[in-house]
Amino acid sequence: MCNFPGNIQEAVMGIERNNIEEKYKWDLAKMYPDKESVDADIEKAAELTDKIAQYKGKLALGKENLLNALKTLEEASRVIEKLYVYTHMKHHEDTRKNDNQADSVKSEMISSDFGVASSYLVPEIIAMDEKVLDEYMQDEDMAFYKKFIDDILRDKPHTLSESEEKILASVSELTAVPESVYDMLAYADMEFPEIEGENGEKIKIDHFNYSLLIKSRDRRVRKDAFEGEFSTYKKFQNTYASSLYGAIKSEIFYAKMRKHNSAIEGSLFADNISVDVYNNLIDAVHESIPTLDRYIEAKKKFLGIEDLHMYDLYVPLAEKFEYKIPYEEAQQIILKALAPLGEEYLSIIQKAFDERWIDAFENEGKKGGAYSWGCYDSQPYILTSYTEDLNSLFTLIHELGHSVHSYYSRNTQPYIYSDYRIFVAEVASTTNELLLVNYLLENAKSKDERIYLLNYYLEQFRTTVHRQTMFAEFEKITHEQVEAGKPLTADDFTEIYYGLNKKYYGNSTNVDELIGIEWARIPHFYSNFYVYKYATGFSAASALSSQILKEGKPAVDRYIEFLKSGGSEYPLDQLRRAGVDMEKKESVEKALDVFAELVEKLEAEI
């Protein structure tokens, strides 16, 4: 039941860790005060791994066997999760330390060994006579595990025989090849050209600096970066097409084998999400394209560019404005911005600051990026590298959203129902961000600041809702065509992707031909209908933050109950209780109404 956090980059460079004040470093000693306590849990994990193996083949022989196996699963998972999280966070403090790296690898092995020892549980439960299982569930102790068992039984129609499951497992390495090819090609083999920077310096395009170059104030730099980036991808288009086509075929293969009607249905099944949610998102965003056009027209006016191209979309507005926010000031801003969520919520945020949940600054060897982690038997922890700019402030309040969500969930739900789904994970973090934007806008002291913030907020909408929905639509179209028997080539992928860019941007932007190859650059297309979650999560957060600001306590109470529900319900049910029904198109439409209001405010400023 361990979830390894995303958004972790390579180790960053900075001062040595021992030169950073303790108050700015997370306190992992609360998890394990010494090596002896770690070793004790390692021994305990080994004992529980042996214990869980003893029930193999015996679950159907009596209620006590099943109950004891489930209790052992729960106890072992908690111990192993704590070891796994602790050793990896210690490793992330300074990746140069071999002892910490060795401990993190050891915890992975412990987790893997337990996974093997307990792998019989799901197949045996699925194979049990349902009448016998129903009889077991009448027991008070067994009733506690009802949702856990129900989740397993949902998979029964899509679970194969033991021999067939082994075959599927054995081909997983083969079906992983397309993504491996993408990784090797994109990150190892491709050579990007050099361009001339704003000051005449030579800059070699790479994956990191392209995102900076495309925001350059110098239009010539943006154009050169755009053409250098995508003309390079164009050279490898046939290899990328073969790789992506293979990935799509693999997803369709698994969906068919597991008796789903389509790849998209198979992908959404785990979260109990209907395809209507996916389609409603696309339909609602299509209807909002005229508002997107208005936003881009406002950008044209501000930038003084009549013939806007795709390489102009990311350039920020209010070029003279800059934020410099010391860390302690950031804490105060966050507390003020989140005041609409009430005193209880603020008290948890204050705990994060006072009880050293946060590892705030970079140091030599520290992992880059940011995440919120922890386990059921620890406080939440946040890793970040705060640098006194606006992005750092937003990153901090984003991760605090995850941490408070985890805090509420772990303090309200039992262990097995405390782990919330990815579909709702970004709602809490994005709600925090949107409340921060609202606070900063209300307290902006100049026109430049207001324009800067409005542009920041609108870009979050455009890139998270409109752009990710366009990606989701690309996935839907390509999978449907392959399922209909059409083999897709590089030209096919490019034609589909270019057509979508024309649909989303063609009324307001000169859609450059080279943008058609951008599909080759997007790694998320290898993650099987994942990107729509960014758009739905942002839409839900937008609607919820709007309710919180307009309704006050009733909306806050619903929202806090949502945070407390953890994994005890399916995502759509949780969001309905919070006040957003994502099966209804109007929920996305309400979020896009917020986008329209922001466009009006930007238009008034420029």
Mind explaining what this structure looks like?
The chain contains 26 helices and 7 strands. Mean pLDDT is 93; it is low at 1-10. Helix 1 packs parallel to helix 3 (98-117) and helix 15 (275-287) crosses helix 21. Strands 4-7-6 form a 3-stranded mixed beta sheet, covered by helices on one side. A two-stranded antiparallel sheet has the order 1-5. The chain has a domain at 31-159: Oligopeptidase f, N-terminal domain (Butyryl-CoA Dehydrogenase, subunit A, domain 3). The protein has helices spanning 35-53, 63-93, 98-117, 121-127, 130-136, 140-143, 146-154, 162-170, 172-175, 177-189, 207-213, 219-235, 237-257, 263-269, 275-287, 289-303, 327-337, 343-354, 390-412, 422-442, 447-483, 490-505, 532-551, 553-564, 571-578, 585-605; strands spanning 8-11, 194-196, 202-204, 358-359, 367-369, 371-373, 381-383. The longest helix has 37 residues, at 447-483. With 606 residues, the chain is mainly α. InterPro entries: OligopepF_N_dom, OligoPept_F_C, Pept_M3A_M3B, Pept_M3A_M3B_dom, Peptidase_M3B. Residues 124-192 form the Oligopeptidase F N-terminal domain. Residues 213-592 form the Peptidase M3A/M3B catalytic domain.
